[in-house]
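Re: duplicated header lines in exported structure tokens

Our pipeline writes sequence and tokens for each protein into one text file. With two proteins the header for the second block appears twice in some exports. Here is an export where it did not happen, for reference. First protein block:
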Amino acid sequence: MSTNRDRVIELYTPIYDEFLFDTYQEKKQVHPEVFEEINDKTLNYITDSMSGLGEWEDSEEFDDGGYDDPVVGYSKTLTQEKRLKRFKVSFEAVDMDEQAILNKVGLAKNMGRGANAKVERECAEIFNTGFSTAGPDGQFLFDSDHPKNPSETGTTFDNLLSGAFSHDNLEAAETEISSNFIGEDGIPMMVDEDAILLHPPALRGAVHRVLSERALERPGTTMRDINRFAGSGYKPVEWWWLGAGNGRSGSNTAWYIVYPKYGFLKIVWSAKPHFTSWVDYGIEAYCFAGRMLYKAGATNWRFGFGSTGV
């Protein structure tokens, strides 16, 4: 069958779909490693942290008591937002060259890369702004005085680490995490040994020197001190969007320890990246569009710790 205007959309739209998805996935995304992905069709996705029932109480024979309610923490609303990109091809271009739409393959590929960059940047921004933007409890995401819960604001906890990344500062971070890994009801939680150590590319060398299985001696020492983190359970994850320069708003010194399994970082999807097309007879053009609908955010400070690296 010959190619004409009526057939162009039918023939080439699946090709563009393939190019869009291939390039959307060609660069490995980091956010799925640290964010819980949720498919939800509601405009506002609302989360409420909730504790257990606290410590058990002393009781005497025939006592009628011991009832308690869980402590409700701070709520977070994630309102989904639309992201899109479009391009068009004129009827004239197709009239003059039946392959004109195929020549727009590069545009479709770049749309996929652009979608990847948009999602990755927005998720990384939660960390990049974590030292200056308030979270659900009114404090910065990484701060030194998070209230225990809405009813006991006089007791505070700390998830702001200090110092440049190093063996000794990682050791100090573990002590701080152990002291502040506490639920809304004040009961210590189990610290997951398989934490992610999230960092920008600039810290690649420092992180690998500390965590490498062969780094048996502490970096920077002359007395052959033992490196207790050699081959440890920390999973180093490098994220380009956490860095500074080249259009990024992050830092080349900041580093983070996160516990993704607790789901405190969420990305809620109503519509994953998808491709649509139509004919606009008013301007005589074939129109192509990529679209996605989502929102990412941090719902609780308790399972992430960060240092500016300064």
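Second protein block, exported in the same file:
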Amino acid sequence: MDSKDHRFRRLNQEIRNCQRCRLAESRTYALCGEGDTNARLMLIAQAPGDTEDQENRMFIGPSGGVLDILLSTAGVSRDALYMTNLVKCRLPDYRRPKQDEIEACSDYLDREISLVDPEVLVPLGYYATRHMLRSMNHSDPESRSDIAELFGTIIPTERGQLYPLPHPASLIYHEDYWPVTQERYRKLKEFV
């Protein structure tokens, strides 16, 4: 029988070799998810940044520093999580992901979710949250502000619970978001 480890190795090899969209031309690495493959909690970010693309690691750039503070405040270790991205390759000039790029990677994300089988999916930010709501046939909020209103809310779905949160990068640009964001991240401890 095909072991979970073997299926992850095969999936990660596919991700590393992916040529499904234009992003393959400008990336250094197609970033695979990392962490506990048996985690109860899966974080889904938007895409790797420049530092992550160079080092082939999740959340090690400026957003990673913010995430570490948020997790530490919540009393949650990175080792207790599985982290991945909606889009597996760096987006040039930190632009927004295009729908065809999201669709090109969506099969990889679906397979990661199936393999990890977490109890709680935690999409970070607008694009990851919108994608997860759509993929679960949940009502799709009209605007960014509608999605922002869902941050910190538990949404039951047929695939488990969805707990959308703001992306850590938002705190780099909006320091006034820290108190409410830290409070929302503290709830992660309950899920771990």
